[in-house]
Amino acid sequence: MKTWEDWHLIDAIARGGTLAQAARNLDIDYSTVHRRLKGIERQVNARLFDRSRSSCSPTPAGERVIAAAAQAREAFDAALLDIAGEDARLTGSIRFTSFTSLAQWVLMPILARFHAAYPEIRVELLESNAALNLTRREADVALRYTRKPPDNLIGARVGRADSAAYAAADYLAGRPDCPLEQLDWIVPAPDVVLPEETQWHQRHVPPSRHVLHTSSGPAGLAAAHAGFGACVLICYLGGAGGLTRISPPIPELAADLWLLTHPSLRHVARIRAFVDFLKRELRELAPLLQGESGPVDLRGPRP
Q1: Rounded to whole angstroms, how far apart are CA atoms 89 and 54?
Q2: Do residues 235 and 229 lie in contact, with contact meaning Cβ atoms separated by under 8 Å?
């Protein structure tokens, strides 16, 4: 016998007692059952059932095959129960990917609280600014900025991440009435592709005020803390980093924040618990994500 269907057919004949009953139980026609049984008997070179109009009794060879089929069925059912039980238990590991800045400045306290609530679930945090492929299971859950999540994933919008201009309080203290265009500016490096932010700088910041180029938000944050000047940052980074916001949120830089996973994982208990926990926590952080918390010193011109 070459396939699970062959074992399944032998088991159905033994349970049904006749070929006709086996056909009804399998929801196929009698001739199909008869033809497939003859094919199996040719494969094993042995008669497996003594057949009459009213009964179908296993031969000694058939009894051995039936016993093997029963063992195979029990092993298969046990494996399914074990898998289902594992998915239903709040244990195991989760591969979670997010942007480096989010991981370092926003997520760590949330993940610590999740660990306290679910100590048997182990989270593997993959800090990456690249979009890991959830379909290929490079990660189980992803937190991404997107205006349109991929069609092959499921998830929920958990907030909006705004960006604004920030500077250190000490830097601003020596320039109390200085408008944005007269401040020193930390701007993206020429090889960093941020077209909307580049256009904003072109409209509001003269090139002569560019004092430092950086390639990442955390580097811009560090430079602003060091007193280089002002910097456009995503609001959770500027706010959590203790800088003062000096512009309203910049509409063209806003991005929706989505928590995503693959549809095949939606009923796995540990994934569901993790996603639900992050939803609640991140939605409570809306003021931080949208620049509505922390010190503010708005100055013109307005974005």
Answers
A1: 48
A2: no
Question: Please, what is the angle between helix 4-16 and helix 19-26, to 10°?
Answer: 120
pTM: 0.63
| 153 confidence band (pLDDT: 50, 70, 90) | confident
Region 251-259 average pLDDT: 91
CA distances from 146 to 67, 136, 195, 236, 255 (A): 56, 20, 16, 17, 6
Taking CB atoms within 8 Å and a gap of at least 24, the contacts of 103-112 are 103/127, 104/218, 105/236, 105/237, 105/240, 105/241, 106/236, 106/240, 106/285, 106/288, 106/289, 107/143, 110/277, 110/278, 110/281, 110/282
Non-local CB neighbours of 75 within 8 Å, separated by 6+ positions: none
Q: Is 191 helix (H, G, I), strand (E, B) or coil?
A: coil
Q: Which of 65-79, 149-163, 226-240 has the lowest mean pLDDT?
A: 65-79
Give the three-state DSSP class for 96: strand
> What is the chain's mean pLDDT, rounded?
85
pLDDT band at 135 (very low <50, low <70, confident <90, very high): low
Residue 243 CA to its chain's centroid (Å): 31
Alpha carbon distance 15, 32 (integer Å): 17
